[in-house]
Amino acid sequence: MSVQLGEMPDSEGYFGEYGGQIIPPELKKIMDDINDSYEEVTRTAAFQEELTALYTDYVGRPSPLYYARRLSEKIGGARIYLKREDLNHTGAHKINHCLGEALLAKHMGKTKVLAETGAGQHGVALATACALVDIPCEIHMGEVDIKKEHPNVTKMKILGCTLVPVTRGTRTLKDAVDSAFEEYLKDPVSFFYAIGSVVGPHPFPKMVRDFQRIVGQEAREQFLAKEGCLPDTLLACVGGGSNAMGLFTAFLEDEHVAMIGVEPAGRGLDTPDHAATLTLGSKGALHGFKCYNLQDEAGEPLPVYSIASGLDYPAVGPQHCYLKDISRVRYVAVDDKACLDAFMTLSRLEGIIPALESAHAVAYAMQLAGEQSSDKSILINLSGRGDKDADFVAEHLGL
């Protein structure tokens, strides 16, 4: 039996009641033009062939499916597998949609590509893609994250992008989004805002999901080839939600495959220092779309926190909101302590240093595997590698 979800989003960009275009009228035409170009250009054989060739020869796809034997044996329960997006060129899943967006911007004749970044993985990937297709790139990044993720800052500068430090508010991801969008509004006809997750006004949640769905398509084929069946459970971390949606999309109609999105509980769900939007948020709107938000009584976004810079965002992709409401995906939260423990455990048992974002999913997998029998399987989207986090973790843990 399968779950018939239908076409998502609808023609107005809604996943159920979430998504859409909550934007000024003058921007609606710009967004509709992007959608029309996306639908026209990406369906051509020439675009598909170019993107496929780049995924293969430039990114290094398909990324491997790896059985984490030592980790599984230590936990003593379900078998744990990793979809190794950390082995992609630039070190994360972000390159998948950045190449697609940069190619689309080039085709549309845009003069500059703008973006925000938190952990820096989207920034590095976009700077890389823009260098490849020869289009100027400008990245906005909060001062807190610039200090914390210095290796990625250096890479972005080497790749030739203009880096704009953001000093307002909490000086993290939400403020970087605000800053980049303000720059975009100066000339939305000439500029292209390459949103870094499945968030923002339509068509971006759809576009980013579609470019990321290759993760799930590969994982499905690889798992079937390796095990002769599909995994019992899929796990991925969720901030905006792009890596999770990339994995989940290929399995949505397989009712027997459980899916779990792992949010950051930060210093605890009983404190204000978390970013567990789907766990504790309420319905609202932010950055041009309807979604669950962490917001105050006036509907203003609350300050959020995560040890993983790529997850500290007060909203979440509209398709995730819809999947939560229909109970197709379950969302849980993992705190900083469990994240760091998973970071070190995976590093020392498997020789794989994960991004702090991905370590949230590893942490919940370790908990879940221990509750299950060895005939069960868990597939984690290991969305990024931890080079960017190594110095921070070492300092934090006194290594």
Features:
single chain, 399 residues, alpha/beta, Rossmann fold, 2 domains, six-stranded mixed beta sheet, four-stranded parallel beta sheet, 16 helices
Short description:
This protein is α/β, with parallel strands linked by helices and 399 residues long. The chain has 16 helices and 14 strands. The mean pLDDT is 95.
Q: Could you explain how this protein is built, in words?
A:
By secondary structure, this protein is α/β, with parallel strands linked by helices. It folds into two domains: 24-55 and 94-209, Rossmann fold, CATH 3.40.50.1100; 60-91 and 213-397, Rossmann fold (3-Layer(aba) Sandwich). Helix content is 43%, strand content 17%. It has 16 helices and 14 strands. The protein has a six-stranded mixed beta sheet, with helices on both faces.
Write the layout of secondary structure elements.
Blueprint: E1 14-15, E2 18-19, H1 25-41, H2 45-59, E3 65-67, H3 69-75, E4 79-84, H4 94-107, E5 112-117, H5 121-133, E6 137-142, H6 143-148, H7 150-158, E7 162-166, H8 173-184, E8 191-193, H9 204-212, H10 214-227, E9 233-237, H11 242-248, E10 258-266, H12 277-280, E11 282-286, E12 289-293, H13 318-325, E13 330-335, H14 336-350, H15 356-370, E14 377-382, H16 390-397
Parallel strand pairs: 4-14, 5-6, 5-8, 6-7, 9-10, 9-14, 10-13
Antiparallel strand pairs: 1-2, 3-4, 11-12
Helix pairs in contact: 2-4, 4-5, 4-9, 5-7, 9-11, 10-11, 14-15
